[in-house]
Amino acid sequence: MPQLITGLPTMRAVSQDRAGAPDVLKVVKTERPEPGRGEILVRVRAAGVNPADWKTRERGVFATGATPPFTLGFDVAGAVEAVGAGVTIFQPGDEVFGMPRFPHPAGAYAEYVTAPARHFAPRPRGLDPVQAGAMPLAALTAWQALVDTAHVRPGQRVLIHAAAGGVGHLAVQIAKARGAHVIATASAAKHDLLRTLGADELIDYRTQDVADTVRDVDVALDSIGGPNWTRSLRTLRRGGTLVSLLPPDDTFPVQQAEKAGVTAVFMLVEPDQQGLREISTLVEDGRLRVIVDAEFPLEQAAQAHALGETGRTTGKIVLTVAPAPEQP
């Protein structure tokens, strides 16, 4: 547990001091951060829960090498509490959302976070804090994969795996907003929902092999990996693009892709204020909505992780953060 210095403002945060199951997540009292040059201090209202969180918790190490004790969480929605020297784009009281510092620890499972001001954008009109807290990492991942990496254009055929998941259900809508013909994989029980989000074709991965069913795809967005990479590859036309959201290992079909005339790439999402603004435009135009499957208070982060690890959720899980108590 972090050591406190008497007299400094404190806050509640969810911390872990070792790798392990969800029950390693504990609420602790720690020092409230202060914004440095170019940073803002955000009073957190909601924090999204993502697969990156529970994978990091279980391994006990961030991709950047940080080890416990640490606080998880990248998705943030809240209000600017203070601004550091040099910040001109936000003022205290502004409502913001963002995915700060990724893949470095951001510490969003807490009452306050600090991060570079340009890792945030104004909260879109029409999104409440919980919805905004669910949005940044998943929406930026979908946007950067489909728009910045694959350059999806009107009329293209786009295959989205795990389409009812956090990234997937947003990717369906973003691809549709780009004018694509969207093919989505999900269990049959989720097909009706995906149709309302814009999917044109639905594949039940439990009963159908997408590699035997789908052809002439321009872009495949694969968040599953392993043998699914090869199945995705078989759906793509020559000149198509396979975008993996999982780091490649020795099964990533680079040579197969080259022989098939296909581009196969791994994409890691990055903090991106311009991307957040583009996402906000889609939200405000009514072309993008986030589905929140479940909400948990900050103190129930372990339960939120346990639910996420079942793999049965639709959309996102969010932690809600009650207003910080007044300092004595």
Strands, helices and their partners?
Elements: E1 10-15, E2 26-31, E3 39-49, H1 51-59, E4 76-83, E5 95-98, E6 112-116, E7 120-122, H2 129-134, H3 136-149, E8 157-160, H4 166-177, E9 181-186, H5 191-197, E10 201-204, H6 210-213, E11 217-222, H7 227-235, E12 236-244, H8 254-260, E13 263-266, H9 273-284, E14 292-297, H10 301-308, E15 316-320
Parallel strand pairs: 8-9, 8-11, 9-10, 11-12, 12-13, 14-15
Antiparallel strand pairs: 1-2, 3-4, 3-6, 3-15, 4-5, 5-7
Helix pairs in contact: 3-4
Task: Provide keyphrases for this structure.
Quinone Oxidoreductase, Chain A, domain 1, seven-stranded mixed beta sheet, 10 helices, Rossmann fold, 27% helix, 328 residues, globular, alpha/beta, 2 domains, 27% strand, six-stranded parallel beta sheet
Description:
The chain is an alpha/beta fold. It folds into 2 domains: 10-135 and 291-320, Medium-chain alcohol dehydrogenases, catalytic domain (Quinone Oxidoreductase, Chain A, domain 1, Alpha-Beta Complex), CATH 3.90.180; 138-266, NAD(P)-binding Rossmann-like Domain (Rossmann fold), CATH 3.40.50.720. Helices cover 27% and strands 27% of the residues. It contains 10 helices and 15 strands. Strands 3, 4, 5, 6, 7, 14 and 15 form a 7-stranded mixed β-sheet that branches. Strand 11 (217-222), helix 7 and strand 12 (236-244) form a beta-alpha-beta unit. The protein is globular, with a radius of gyration of 20 Å. The two termini are 21 Å apart. The mean pLDDT is 95.
